[in-house]
Amino acid sequence: MAETTELGRYLRARRAQVTPADAGLPAGTGLRRTPGLRREELATLSGVSVDYYTRLERGRETNPSTAVIDAIGRALRLRGDAYERLHDLAELASGRTADSDEPRPTDDDTVRPSVLTMLEALRPLPAYVVNRYNVMLAANPSGRRLLPGLWDWPAEQRSITRYLFLHPVGRELYVPWEETVIKSVAHLRAIAGGDPDDPRLTALVGELLLKSPEFTRIWDRYDVDERSGGTKTFAHPKAGAMTLTYEVMRLARTGGQRLVTYQAPAGSPDEEAMLKLDPQSP
Q1: Which end of the chain is more exposed for a tag (fewer CB within 10 A), N or C?
Q2: Into how many domains does the chain fold?
Q3: CATH of the domain at 64
């Protein structure tokens, strides 16, 4: 019987990503038909019976204790958002989630005037505002030029995740592309953990599953991540090659809007390239 719950699908996907060596187990001999850990190996590492773990993965056990989920999370070497995602799915499976009666976050895509003023004040640094679905809602001139072609799409289609997979420039802009899209899809997985029935998320994911085999492959990894900053390298068609640091800041009382800013060390070749994005830069 195949797994029938989101928890089961998550467990199977994460189990496939842990090798026996990762878990401190001997590799053994002969061909392994299962990528990653076998069910019996994960059950042993988690301190539960093989029968119990199999029922959990197949959706026939829907009320695992917190201690069991903790043990499975440790055996799968989950950390941070991925660990929290496991607990969220266990709560959803058991029906004991505390968030079930809370309203879905507002879909108001209006950016406050004060935030628009901030975007302009950040020039010449590229900056933009995205909603919880990674749809770009507003940007300063450098922010718009950072992602060529995104603003050619209708407003509701300007998801950066969609751009990465379906726009020809988006597929060439980020270096390495694979690393960038894995992080972007992991963000969508994090959203899904809080509200798997969100219609806007379902529509976006459904479109990408239909149109992009690469998205399907990465979506099925069940990675979960909500990053607050880091570095990105661009092969920009106008500005050239540049590596920029970025920060992501949540905007209060917006239903999930985030301000994203980019910068480069003063006087560096990366800053020189970045400044080409602002039409007012000398």
Answers
A1: C
A2: 2
A3: 1.10.260.40
* Pair (134, 259) in one structural domain: yes
**Is-contact 162 169, C-beta < 8 A?**
no
pLDDT tens across 235-275, in order?
A: 999 999 999 999 999 998 887 899 999 999 999 999 999 99
Asked if residue 126 lies in contact with residue 140, where contact means CB atoms within 8 angstroms, the answer is: yes
- Decide if 36 contacts 16 (C-beta within 8 A): yes
Same domain? For 202 and 68 the reply is no
Listed in sequence order, the residues at least 6 apart from 162 whose beta carbon sits closer than 8 Å to its beta carbon are: 134, 204, 207, 208
Distance from C-alpha of 228 to C-alpha of 53, rounded to nearest angstrom? 34
Q: Quick check: 97 pLDDT over 60?
A: no
Residue finishing a domain among 63, 94, 125: 94
158-181: pLDDT as tens digits: 999 999 999 999 999 999 999 999
The model carries a pTM of 0.72
What is the model's pLDDT at position 109? 85
In a domain, 105, yes or no: no
CA angle 226, 174, 223 (to 5 degrees): 30
Assess whether pLDDT exceeds 90 at residue 212: yes
Taking alpha carbons only, the member of 155, 159, 7 closest to residue 91 is 7
Q: Which long-range contacts (CB under 8 A, 24 or more apart) does 54-57 make?
A: 56/7, 56/8, 56/11, 57/3, 57/8, 57/11, 57/12, 57/15
Look-up of token digits 């959706």: 59
